[in-house]
Amino acid sequence: MKTAVVAGALCTLLLGFANAWAVDNTPDLPDARLQQRYEGLIHELRCVQCQNEAIADSTVNLAADLRLRVHDLILAGKSDDEIRDYMVARYGDFILLRPRMTARTAWLWAAPGLLLLGGAFVAVSVLRRRSQLPIEDDPRD
Amino acid sequence: MKRFLLPLVGFALLVVVLVVGLRHAPEKGIIVSPLLGKAAPGFTLPDLMDGKQSVSSQSLQHQWYVFNVWGTWCAACREEHSALLAIKALHQVPIIGMDWKDEDSAALAWLSELGNPYDRVATDRDGLAAIDWGVYGAPETFLVNDAGIVLHKHVGAMSLDVWQQEFVPLLPKTAATPTGAGS
């Protein structure tokens, strides 16, 4: 009985600490749907100061400012795309962790497909040439 | 002979890609500002010297200015401070400071200790104006022309070399000669 109480108290304490360690101190939005949009956006915006983290995961001051900005813009009735545009206008395409399809980033999106096509072309032409080699060519000599 | 040609071309292309990548490696951490060539963001912020006054983009219309974002918590800002004082002494362009997410008292103490290179200092306590300028790390220094267009941005500590190489060539001839300081 006693150990259960102690264990319970410890768990509560630890959970409390976990809360204190949470990165995001931005106040919650009044409605679950807005909050969900907020969570989505802060995970796709790059912390421009630390560069390899989303602002959702960064403890840097600027990331906190940008989270608050996203929060306020959602409250002001802006759409997700408007908020992305707002960030891109200030920090450039780099702030989007998932790059947009634009004239400048098109090659980024096309590259894997092009490489695959190139590889397939090489493979096919090599195999074709091999299959046309005379058969007597290999084992006896 | 012919069978080596294709791999050789491939190898040469790879070398070109890697050399270009290596050349650009030092600039990789620097984000090119989308503001370049566009209008400087509008702002109205409290004046550090007198909280009742404000420093606004409107009050800076029709003149060239350097916009320097700094804070007393920023080590590289201390490093660049003497360069800013030297640039001020050239009387080419007024320097407007923006004290980013800082305590006014700390900022005032800093300026009286190290000297004040700024014509005006705006205070951005909540960091909103800094976001409008796309600031991601202090110090950052912008050059704005008399049409209100951002011409250049330098990320990191300023130095006289950076000033001479990156900023002076962009100045109009009248300002580039040391006596032509605007008001």
Explain this structure to me?
The complex is a heterodimer of chains A (141) and B (183). The mean pLDDT of chain A is 84. Chain A is mainly alpha-helical and 141 residues long. Chain A is built from five helices and no strands. With 183 residues, chain B is α/β, with parallel strands linked by helices. Chain B has two domains: 1-30; 32-176, Glutaredoxin (3-Layer(aba) Sandwich), CATH 3.40.30.10. Helices cover 36% and strands 19% of the residues of chain B. The A-B interface holds A 48-49, 51, 61-62, 65-66, 69, 88-92, 94 and B 29, 31-35, 101, 126-128, 130-134, 136-137.
The CATH superfamily label of the largest domain in chain A reads Cytochrome C biogenesis protein
Distance between the terminal alpha carbons of chain A, to the nearest Å? Answer: 87 Å
| Helical percentage of chain B | 25-40%
Biggest sheet, spatial arrangement of strands of chain B: 5-4-3-6-7
Number of domains in the coordinates of chain B?
2
Strand fraction of chain A? under 5%
**What is the count of helical runs of chain A?**
5
Largest sheet of chain B: 5 strands, mixed
Overall morphology of chain A: elongated
CATH superfamily grouping of the largest domain in chain B: Glutaredoxin
CATH topology of the largest domain in chain A: Helicase, Ruva Protein, domain 3
Chain pair forming the biggest interface: A-B, 14 and 17 residues
Radius of gyration of chain B: 20 Å
Number of helices of chain B: 6
Structural class of chain B: alpha/beta
Uncertain spans of chain A = none
